[in-house]
C-alpha cells in the first residue's frame, strides 16, 4: 500500500485561500491554525508560512485593529490582483516594443551604411518572406481562435460568472462593513478608509 502523498506548498496556498472564499469572514492566525487542519487538511504548523506567502502575493489582505491582526480574502480580490498583473504586463510589453523599435531603427541605420552584396540581398529577401509568412499564420490562428465555439462559450460563461460575482461580492462588502460597525463600533467612513473602499462604492449596473 503506497504512502499518502502530503500536500504541496501550492496546494496548501490554494486550499487556504479557498477557505477564505467559503467562510467570507475575518480571521486571526490562531483561528486559522485551528480551522485549516480540520477543513482543508493543512497542518497547523504550516498555516502561518502559507498565509504569509498569500499576503506577500497580495492574495490575502491583512490589517491590525487594536491589538489584533485580522486576515481576509474574497474572490474579487484575486480577480483584481490578476487585473493588476495584466496591466503591469501590458506596460512591460509596451516597454519591450519600444526597445525593439529602437533596435530595429539602429539596425536599419547600420544596414544603410553597409555595402550591398548579392548574398546579403538574397538573405534579406528570404527573411522578409519568412516574416510575412509568420504574420499571416498568426492572423489565421487568431481568426480561427475567435471562431472556436468552445472559446466563445467559455467567454460567455466567464462573463456571466463575472456579472454574478460583482453583485454577490458587493453584497459581501456591505455585510462586512455592517459586521465591523456592529462588532467594533467603528464609523463607516473609518472602515472605508482602513480597507480602501471608495466613498462612492455601490452596486454597478451591468
From TrEMBL:
The keyword Coiled coil applies. It is found in: Nucleus. GO terms for cellular component: nucleus. Residues 150-204 form the Leucine zipper with capping helix domain. Its main location: nucleus. Transmembrane segments: none annotated. It comes from the Eukaryota. Keywords: Coiled coil, DNA recombination, Meiosis, Nucleus. InterPro entries: LZ3wCH, Mnd1, Mnd1_HTH. GO terms for molecular function: double-stranded DNA binding. The keyword Ubl conjugation does not apply. GO terms for biological process: reciprocal meiotic recombination. Residues 86-147 form a coiled coil. Residues 17-75 form the Mnd1 HTH domain. Pfam families: LZ3wCH (PF18517), Mnd1 (PF03962). Required for proper homologous chromosome pairing and efficient cross-over and intragenic recombination during meiosis. Belongs to the MND1 family. This is Meiotic nuclear division protein 1 homolog. It comes from Actinia tenebrosa. The gene is LOC116288766.
